Amino acid sequence: MAVINATEGSGRRRARFLKPLSGVLRFAVVIITTYLGLLAVTFFIGRVVPVDPVLAVLGDRAPASAIARVRAEMGLDLPLWQQFLLYLKQVLSGNLGNSVLTSRPVLEDVMRVFPATLELATFGTIVGTAIGIPLGVLAAVKRGSITDQVVRLIGLAGYSIPIFWLALLGLVLFYAKLHWVAFPGRIDVTYEYTFTPITGMLLFDALIQREWDVAWDVFRHIVLPGCLLGYFSLAYISRMTRSFMLNELGQEYIVAARAKGLSEQRIIWFHALRNAAVPLVTVVALSYAGLLEGSVLTETVFSWPGLGLYITNSLQNADMNAVLGGTIVIGSVFIALNLFSDFLYRTLDPRTRVK
């Protein structure tokens, strides 16, 4: 009997050890598979587009011998599968190639412009979350009323109206007519060469350095594009909040809370919303990732020197190394945010964990 009990105890200990290990292995397989898929897509896009990377470097009038030499140096004379392996090796080592437009390493360029995109997307996500969640809660509580219809109409408009049209309209109204916001760009030329950033996110840097004049100038530049992105984030967040809240308000624990005599405000904000906040974490994370990858048109209209504008200029100049490098960075951030939101979801809601 003692031997059987010892064997069962050993089996339980082994199971407790193998269960988290298998979860980690599955998580690693998901990350590796997804990232390999991203690299495969970017590689084949680079081979399909009608742009010769050799001619982009040497020009159309380069001699045939120079073209053949550079093609061999870049590995473009090898079979496609060997080119893909070389591509994987370069990317995993942090080498995204050199930009034809700037003559610098693409990774260096991306690290220089990415904080601007990060700052703009963060500002938009804060605006969208701060307004979208209360609107979604209000629409759920007032289901079927005029308030609900207005909130749903606001969300529908956010999905339907092109952002570049809203951006141009906003510039005409708030910059040209009312003079409430600053000229397109990120910072006034007065402060551009006198202010020293720390993280690359100028508003945050100005605040922590207590440069109030710089902070106000940066805010006047970011407020319009940030609020436009926040509006599109708001449309998604408010709709999902409404859906989650309607589901929670129909649960039995809400009926029990009302039977106990709790106030309606406490039931809505401290019980229903608290449970709806678990899936909302994923929604906000996906919205944030969407703003990081989808701010190309906004950055172009407002001359915002971020990753979106960098990719747009590179594409117009047939700089495929920069285009693919920027795409890889955005895709990597999107994958990371998705995995992080999934981790938070499983952490906050034990019911989703694999038993």
From TrEMBL:
Coiled coil region boundaries: none
Organism, scientific name: Paenirhodobacter populi
Transmembrane portions of the chain: 23-45, 120-141, 153-176, 218-237, 268-291, 322-345
Record-linked Pfam families: BPD_transp_1, BPD_transp_1_N
The keyword Transport appears for this protein: yes
Protein name: ABC transporter permease
Location(s), subcellular: Cell membrane
Domain ABC transmembrane type-1: 114-341
Membrane topology: Multi-pass membrane protein
Domain of life, source organism: Bacteria
Record keywords: Cell membrane, Membrane, Transmembrane, Transmembrane helix, Transport
InterPro entries, A to Z: BPD_transp_1_N, MetI-like, MetI-like_sf
MF-aspect GO terms: dipeptide transmembrane transporter activity
Main location: membrane
GO cellular component terms, semicolon-separated: plasma membrane
Family membership noted in the UniProt record: Belongs to the binding-protein-dependent transport system permease family.
